[in-house]
């Protein structure tokens, strides 16, 4: 049986709520988009988009949807729209999605 929840500092998954939350430290204006490791309890992601007009936020959500193989509509920016620190909420999420997300830090 799958665990009722999976929690690491930057990822919280609640099976009963089918809810996955990712804590991300975003670095906009990068040459390419991708994970560069962990930073202060968050997944550090470089984003190849400027931090203006919500472009970096949108690019982050589109990239995450692609790498997690999810429809873009399942991801939303829960907090941090104007900050480098962001919380992304994925609903619905399965244990397989949580495992794919956890593998991003490897």
Short synopsis of the structure:
With 106 residues, the protein is α+β, with helices and mostly antiparallel strands.
Number of strands: 7
Mean pLDDT: 93
Encode the helix/strand succession as letters.
EEEEEHEEH
Low-confidence stretches: none
**Which structural class fits the helix and strand makeup?**
alpha+beta
| Global morphology | globular
* Number of helices in the DSSP assignment: 2
Key descriptive features of the protein:
single chain; 106 residues; seven-stranded mixed β-sheet; 2 helices; 7 strands; globular
Write up what this structure looks like.
With 106 residues, this protein is of the alpha+beta class. Helices cover 20% and strands 37% of the residues. Strands 1, 2, 3, 4, 5, 6 and 7 form a seven-stranded mixed beta sheet that branches. It is built from two helices and seven strands. β6 and β7 form a beta hairpin. It starts with a strand and ends with a helix. The longest helix has 13 residues, at 55-67. It has helices at residues 55-67, 95-102, and strands at residues 5-8, 11-14, 19-27, 34-39, 42-46, 75-79, 85-90. The mean pLDDT is 93.
